[in-house]
Amino acid sequence: MSRVAYVNGRYIRHAAAGVSIDDRAFLFADGIYEVIEVFDGRLIDEEGHLLRLARSAAQLRLTLPMAATALRRILRELVARNRVTDGHVYLQVTRGAAKRDHGFPKPGTPSTVVAFAHRGDRAAAEARAHAGIKVISLPDIRWKRPDIKTTSLLPNVLAKQQAKEAGAYEAWLVDADGFVTEGSSSNAWIVDSAGVLVTHPADSAILAGITRARLLKIAAARGLKIVERPFTLAEAFRAQEAFISGATTIVLPVVAIDGQNIGSGAPGAVALGLRASFHEFAPATA
Ligand code: PDD
Fold it and tell me: Which of 55, 187, 199, 215 for a ligand 1 pocket mutation test, highest count of atoms within 8 Å of Cβ?
């Protein structure tokens, strides 16, 4: 079965799908996106993702060309046409195609909307979670608005590649004051030496993860002590546990940072517990 993508009103074979070379996202990374998990054929926390897309659009003065209900229809259609049981949908909106000029195109230039679906492998994801992942730390060299989910991801791309080349799964980004902000494509968490669940506040220094928000609710419901505050790398080394979260990873325990074991060097109970209960608590829409 060939994959099907959505481009500006049409469903087409993924391999044949394309946009103009004048597209602002191609030329300037002038676009926004969302990645939504599909679990048992349902979209997880779809509403939160679409609200964040609208916020990203507003922050960048980019016009969303259709209402959330129309976007929902497209995402559902892609899940069905690609027969995704477990996986993800990707949705991107750009400022459209126009003669190259840094300033915005003239009013009325249609935005570009692209969406596609990926099938995932639940067993492989579970195996990764139970093995735990390694992380490296790198300076956070991103612009000052990583709270906007834009396709301008070069620092993230470079950080992820450096992690891969070091045999790690993720890079934790450290700001000028020594605090871990987040991962290159995930939020960063520790269970500190006092047993408190700690993650960076959702301010302009990080992307306010939809998975992160859901996990905070689950952790509160489970009676865990939670503090949203920045933590240093030194604190992470002393932590009982560490983990990452995101729509593509849900929760992955971190067993080593920069080659140093975290806690016992095995996935922690808090991380695995949150992962195990995630889909019981996360609203899914069919
Ligand atoms: N990334 N921080 C960054 C920098 C991210 O890119 C992501 C997600 C997150 C987690 O956000 P959420 O829980 O809403 O997925 C945090 C997606 C999955 C990606 O770029 O593929």
Answer: 187
Task: Name the active-site residue from 134, 144, 149, 160.
Answer: 149
Known catalytic residue at 149: yes
**E-assigned strand segments in 140-267:** 170-174, 179-183, 187-191, 197-199, 226-228, 231-232, 241-246, 250-257, 260-261
Residue where the block lists tokens 């079965």: 1
The enclosing H or E element of 119 equals: strand 112-119
The model's pLDDT over 183-231, given as tens digits with 9 standing for 90+, comes to 999 999 999 999 999 999 999 999 999 999 999 999 999 999 999 999 9
Query: In angstroms, rounded to a whole number, what is the distance separating the alpha carbons of residues 172 and 180?
Result: 6
Q: How far apart are CA 249 and CA 211, in angstroms?
A: 9
- The pair of three-digit structure tokens given for residue 67, joined into one six-digit string: 């209402």
Rounded to the nearest angstrom, the distance between the alpha carbon of 30 and the centre of ligand 1 is: 18
Rounded distance from Cα 246 to ligand 1 centre (Å): 5
Q: How far is the CA of 108 from the centre of ligand 1 (A)?
A: 30
Backbone angles phi, psi at 130, to 5 degrees: -80, -20
**pLDDT, tens only, 77-111:** 999 999 999 999 999 999 999 999 999 999 999 99
* Domains of the chain as residue ranges with CATH: 4-120 (3.30.470.10), 125-285 (3.20.10.10)
* Token pair listed for 278: 């995630």
Nearest CA to ligand 1 atom 1: 185
